[in-house]
Write a structure and sequence with these properties.
Layout: H1 2-14, E1 24-31, E2 34-41, E3 51-55, E4 61-66, E5 72-75, E6 82-90, E7 93-100, H2 113-144, H3 149-176
Antiparallel strand pairs: 1-2, 2-5, 3-4, 3-6, 6-7
Length: 178
């Protein structure tokens, strides 16, 4: 029976999925001349003093930051473009996010007066829209990692199924006198 138990344990390890009770997620938003956001754990809480590495898509390091007491961070990118954020909170907790500033951080250098007014208006509109949709984006990120009722029922199904398999194997062993 010990060989069967070892084989069953090895088989179960093949189907093991990462635990998500304390999975780390990262939320960030580009607004105006800053990229700001925060890290959070699915089970609740925010990583304090976690390391945030900001790189360009080619891997060039842009900045190294630490999250604040609320798990938040804010930085001004050197230029418009795409950035890769990597948050490491220790104990294997790690989250990544790609974010683009879409060229909204800098107005054209030699823009005529009308273009400057238009760029300023565009920046103000973008900032207002960003303030309005931020709570929606935050709620979506938080809901994305929550354990759902279906997940609980599925987990219980696995437990009942494995217990049933164990009981069936045990009854066969008892019948055959193994």
């Amino acid at each position: 029976m010990s060989r069967l138990a070892a084989a069953l344990a090895a088989l179960l390890l093949l189907f093991a999925l990462p635990a998500e009770a304390h999975r780390l997620k990262l939320f960030a938003q580009a607004t105006g001349e800053n990229i700001a956001g925060y890290g959070f754990f699915i089970g609740g809480g925010r990583p304090q003093g976690a390391d945030l590495l900001v790189t360009m898509p080619d891997g060039t390091e842009v900045s190294r930051l630490k999250t604040g007491a609320d798990g938040g961070f804010s930085f001004a990118p050197p230029a418009p473009g795409r950035y890769h954020l990597s948050l490491a909170a220790g104990d294997g907790h790690f989250a990544e996010l790609d974010i683009s500033t879409d060229g909204t951080l800098a107005a054209p250098a030699a823009a005529p007066p009308q273009a400057s007014v238009t760029a300023d208006l565009d920046a103000r509109i973008e900032a207002a829209v960003a303030r309005q949709i931020r709570p929606l984006l935050e709620a979506y990120e938080a809901a994305d990692g929550r354990v759902r009722f279906n997940d609980l029922i599925g987990g219980l199904g696995w437990i009942v199924g494995l217990f049933g398999l164990w009981a069936w194997l045990r009854s066969r062993r008892d019948r055959h006198g193994d």
